[in-house]
Amino acid sequence: MDSSTLMYSLDLVCGNGLTLSTEQKAALHTSLLILKRNYKFNRVLFWGKILGIKKDYFIAQGVGEDEMRDRKCLYSFNCMDWHLLPLATEALTAEVAVAARGRFMGEPSHEYQHTVIRHQGEGDNAVEEEVMVKVSEEKRLAVTVFTINNEVAVVPRGAYIKSPNGIVQTNRSFEGLNPTEAGKLNNYLHFSEPKNLKKKSILELADLNPSIDFLDPLIDDIPKGSWSLQFEHGSRVCVIRSLLWFGLTFFHVPVTSQHGYIYIGDGLKNMDLPFMM
């Protein structure tokens, strides 16, 4: 959620019982403005909080020219001092998937270790070698934030436009979905590189507007039933929650441009939930 509307937005997503203290809100309101100036970001978003055993990680995102691809993630323990997270590459993601297990400790220098057996050579010359894979919690944090963004970051249809040169920016003419549109899951999109859009037929693509329909809609997600949509605050606010990543909460105020999402959870994906098909 945008740092400029942080105080207002946090009150709209507190229905799950997780929120921030008054001191944390005040510290974020000040430090995110300083963060924007120091790093020369166009916008700064408060991404959320990942719960740890010893300490919790507060996550912020700085946005550049391209709203979707030009983003940097930072973390803090006290909502004042921010540290840049490393880039989550494919190699790093593979290492984290092998080595990291359990809850976050709350120590960036903590190392996760796991021994894997790798085969070298072929035929009679084949040998087995034990290799120790080590990964720090800071790198695990970077991969977790990237994965959550990639799988469940949500925006309303029309809130962002894609220019002819491929840059994604906010749609200044977007005034929000009307109450009828806000209640339909197909009017909400994944804010990440599309995966299913290229699989659509020519007839399906003919009904889409390339400038705003360049993302995958939530309605196409598998398994079905992995999203919860409901109206709160006297039916004034549409709230969508992910049932794959418990803690991801998106809100949209119909007939306004106000929207955003926040993650407050332990950074573990729920894989055992029985879904309705």
TrEMBL record:
Pfam families: Radial_spoke. GO terms for biological process: axoneme assembly; cilium movement involved in cell motility; motile cilium assembly. GO terms for cellular component: kinocilium; radial spoke. Keywords: Cell projection, Cilium, Cilium biogenesis/degradation, Cytoplasm, Cytoskeleton, Flagellum. It is found in: Cell projection, Kinocilium; Cytoplasm, Cytoskeleton, Flagellum axoneme. Belongs to the flagellar radial spoke RSP9 family. This is Radial spoke head protein 9 homolog. The gene is rsph9.
